């Protein structure tokens, strides 16, 4: 089953995010209160919990939010989903994948504190098409 296992936000870019039990996705903006939200194509970020676990197995002391991901998921092979894929989170929210991976122009605080950052390789970015409250353990489904 595809589901949300962590939701996290931060007030500043380039820092680890603080995990929450629930949050609000705002249409056309992103996660309410998060530094990365805004009217651009990377309103919300996703990372597979399996990727975080793999980083742990390589010796990194990391947890949810440490790679500055907004939503950590379980059971989703993000690399198999193309840009343009729409996903429903919980009962209301819908996001559309806009970017797979990202280019880092400089090493951020996450890289220096964790020893690596997997977001440039494995992070997924999306825009919010329909907002709503999302919670840890909410199901995620591919739309259409």
How do the helices and strands line up, and which of them pair or pack?
Layout: E1 3-9, E2 18-20, E3 22-26, E4 30-31, E5 44-48, H1 49-57, E6 71-74, E7 86-89, E8 93-100, H2 109-114, H3 119-122, E9 124-130, E10 132-135, E11 140-142
Parallel strand pairs: 5-6
Antiparallel strand pairs: 1-2, 1-6, 3-4, 3-10, 5-9, 7-8, 7-11, 8-9
What is this entry, summarized?
This protein is mainly β. The chain has three helices and eleven strands, in the order βββββαβββααβββ.
Main attributes of the structure:
mainly beta; M1 Pyruvate Kinase, Domain 3; three-stranded antiparallel β-sheet; 11 strands; 36% strand; globular
Supply the number of helical segments. 3
* Nearest-integer average pLDDT: 91
Residues in helix, %: 10-25%
Order of helices and strands: EEEEEHEEEHHEEE
Strand order across the biggest sheet? Answer: 2-1-6-5-9-8-7-11
Provide the β-strand percentage band. 35-45%
CATH architecture: Beta Barrel
Secondary structure: number of strands: 11
By secondary-structure content and strand pairing, the structural class works out as: mainly beta
The CATH topology annotation reads as M1 Pyruvate Kinase, Domain 3
For the sheet with most strands, the description reads: 8 strands, mixed
Q: Spans of 5+ residues with little confidence (pLDDT < 50)?
A: none
The backbone outline, from C-alpha atoms, is globular
**CATH superfamily assignment?**
PK beta-barrel domain-like
How many separate structural domains?
1
**Can you identify the CATH class?**
Mainly Beta
